[in-house]
Amino acid sequence: MYISINNELFLQENANISVADLSIQRGYGIFDFLKTINHKPIFIGDYFNRFYNSAKEMHLEVELTRNQLHEAILKLIAKNNIPDSGIKIILTGGFSADGYTMVKPNLIIIQTPLNIIENTSGNGLALVSYNHQRQIPQVKTIDYLQAIRLQKFVKENGAHDLLYHNNGKVRECPRANFFMVTDDEVITAKNEILHGITRKKILGMDIHGYTFVERDFTLDEAYQAKEAFISSSTKNAFPVDKIDGKLIGNGKNTITRLINDKLLKLIELDQRD
Amino acid sequence: MYISINNELFLQENANISVADLSIQRGYGIFDFLKTINHKPIFIGDYFNRFYNSAKEMHLEVELTRNQLHEAILKLIAKNNIPDSGIKIILTGGFSADGYTMVKPNLIIIQTPLNIIENTSGNGLALVSYNHQRQIPQVKTIDYLQAIRLQKFVKENGAHDLLYHNNGKVRECPRANFFMVTDDEVITAKNEILHGITRKKILGMDIHGYTFVERDFTLDEAYQAKEAFISSSTKNAFPVDKIDGKLIGNGKNTITRLINDKLLKLIELDQRD
After folding, report:
1. Taking Cα atoms as reference points, which of B255, B268, B265, B263 lies closest to residue B124?
2. Which of the four pLDDT bands, split at 50, 70 and 90, describes residue A137?
3. Using the beta-carbon criterion (under 8 Å), do B146 and A136 form an inter-chain contact?
4. Which residue of A has its CA nearest to B16?
5. What is the pLDDT of residue A95?
6. A208/B contact by beta carbon, under 8 A
7. Predicted pLDDT of residue A115
8. Do A141 and B146 make contact, defined as CB atoms within 8 angstroms?
C-alpha cells in the first residue's frame, strides 16, 4: 500500500513526517474524504470545492491545482489497485521552526479499502446526544478531540455514535450529518455544521409529498420524528433507531430507504460518467 | 539536536512519525511545556501534575512513570547540552489502523533553546480580543486551530497576540494567562481556562495592599484596569499596554514588575533546589 506525501509515493511503512509538523505540534490541518467505486472517484468536483475552501479558510496554500491534485489521486489509485476505496486528503500546517508559525503545508493522500456498512440487518444506529458546538464548523478541520475523547462515553451509553447539539439545537454527528423525517418534511440542521456532500445530494432530491428543509430543530423534535437517519460518504443514508435510548418512529424507515436508493443511483451515474 | 520519541533518541532530521498517528489524522494529543535553567527543569512537579492529568482527561496512557519521564528528560538534556531551554512533551493518540480509534500513544520530547523575552524596552504587549471559548479548556491539548488561523487577524490589528473572551468574559491568551490589576486587587479568570503553572505561582504571592482573586471579569473591566499582564513559562509576568487599541493604565506597571521580580526569585530558588 502506497501513501502520497507532497505528490511523492511512499510505501505505507515509510510514510512518515517530521514531528515538527504543525498537525502534531498544534493540531493544525484540514482534510477531506471521498470514495472510489471501481477505481473512479465519486463526486470529486464537490469534494474538491470543499477541500480548497477549507484550505482557504485556514490560510493554507494548496500547492497543486485541482487538475494536479486529481492527477496525484489517480496516480495513487493506479499504484494501489483497490477498486472500492476511501481517499483521504490531509493538508497540514507544515514543518514549523518555532512550532507556531504557519509555513509550507504538507499534503498527504491515503487510500484505504472502502468499508461501506450496508443496513442489511434492518437495524439502525443508536446515537447518544452530547452538548458540543464544533469550532469553525463549516471547515473540515482535523479537530476530533471531543469525538475521540468521548468514544468511551458512547460505549458506556450502549450507542454507536454521538449526536452533537448546541444547548438543545441538533447539529450533526462527528463524521456525518443528521436528518429527521416528519409527516411531510425531511429536515436537517442549517447552521454551525459541516455541509456534507452526501447531505447536499439528499437536499437536491424530489420525493412526492415531502419537502426538504434546512433549519434549526431541537433534540425533543428529533425524539418525536417519524424517521431519522445520518448521511455520509461511507454510510450513504443510514437509519437511526434510537437517540438517548428512545426509539425513533416505527422502525420501517420507508423514506430513509427511498433516499438511500436514490443516493445509490446518483453514485452509479457518477461512477459511469 | 536530538529528539526523544517513545524514549529513544533521534537526530532532529530523523525524528519522524507515521502519518497514521492520530495527531495528524484527528488532531488528537496533549502536551506540556517547561523550561530548564542551567540544565535544571523548573517547577517540574507542577508540570508533571498537569501533564498526567491532561493525559487522564483525554484517556491517553502515559507508558512512563513520573520518575521514568523525568529520566527521559534528563537523558535528552544531557545529550543536547542546551543549558537554558524549553522542553515540550507531546503525547498523541498513537498509530491508529482505522484513523479513529485510540491506540498506544506516542510520546515525543523536544528541546529547544529558550527564548525568554525580557521586557527591557519598557514596552508591553498589544492584545486584540476575540470571542472564542477553548474546548476542554482545563486540558492542555494540542488544539490551536483558532490561534494559528488568527495569526493574520492579529497582525492586521497591529497586535502581538490574542485575548480570548467568551461573550465578553475575559478568558486567556492562546499560550498565556491574563491578569488585570485594580487599586487593590490582582485578578485573573477562574473558569474555562487552562490553569497555568506561572499563574499558580502568582496566585500564591503576597503583596501588601493587594488581594489575589480568581473570578470572571469583562473586557470592559480590563480596559479600565490600572495594569494588565500575561503570565507564561517563557514570558513570566509580561506587561500588556494595549487591548483593542485602548491604552491600559499609565504605563508604569509597578505591580507587574514586582510580580515578575518575585517570579524570578521563585525560579532561582527552584533552580538551586
Report:
1. B255
2. very high
3. yes
4. A18
5. 95
6. no
7. 74
8. no
pLDDT in tens, B26-62: 999 999 999 999 999 999 999 999 999 999 999 999 9
Per the listing, cell 456498512 goes with A117
Residues of A within 8 A of B145 (CB-CB) are 26-28, 58, 135-136, 141, 143
31-60 of A, contacting B, C-beta below 8 A = 57-59
SS3 B189: coil
For all residues of chain B together, what is the average pLDDT?
Answer: 96
| B207 HSE (CA, 13 A, CB side) | 24
A187-210 average pLDDT score: 98
B26 and A CB contact within 8 Å: yes
How far does the CA of residue A210 sit from the closest CA of chain B (Å)? 36
- CB-closest option in B17, B26, B58 to A16: B17
CA A190 to chain centre: 16
pLDDT at A153 over 80: yes
φ, ψ at B49 (rounded to 5°)? -55, -45
pLDDT for A123 equals 83
Contact between A19 and B27 using a beta-carbon 8 Å cutoff: no
Sequence-separated (6 or more) residues with CB below 8 Å from residue A108: A3, A4, A5, A15, A17, A88, A89, A90, A91, A92, B19, B24
Dihedral pair phi/psi, residue B131, rounded to 5°? -75, 100
pLDDT of residue B121: 65
d(CA A156, CA A171): 22
Test the B interface: residue of A132, A145, A173, A232 with most B CBs within 10 Å: A145
* CA of residue A180 relative to chain centroid, distance: 18
Binary contact (B145, A132; C-beta < 8 A)? no
Among B22, B57, B148, beta carbon nearest to A28: B148
Residue A58 three-state SS: coil
Q: Please report the pLDDT score of residue B117 as a whole number.
A: 66
* Of residues A36 and B114, more confidently modeled: A36
Question: What values do phi and psi take at A26, rounded to 5?
Answer: -140, 15
Please compute the mean of the pLDDT values over residues A198-213 and round it to a whole number: 98
CA distance B104 to B121: 47
Tally A–B CB contacts below 8 A: 135
Q: Are the beta carbons of A102 and B135 separated by less than 8 Å?
A: no
Closest CA to A161 of A224, A94, A228, A110: A228
Instruction: Read off the C-alpha cell for A42.
Output: 465519486
| Average pLDDT taken over every residue of chain A | 96
What percentage of chain B exceeds 90 in pLDDT?
95
Give residue-wise pLDDT tens across range A14-49. Answer: 999 999 999 999 999 999 999 999 999 999 999 999
A167 touches chain B (CB under 8 A): no
User: Would you call A115 helix, strand, or coil by DSSP?
Assistant: coil
Task: Among A25, A89, A139, pick the best mutation site for testing chain B contact (most B Cβ within 10 A).
Answer: A25
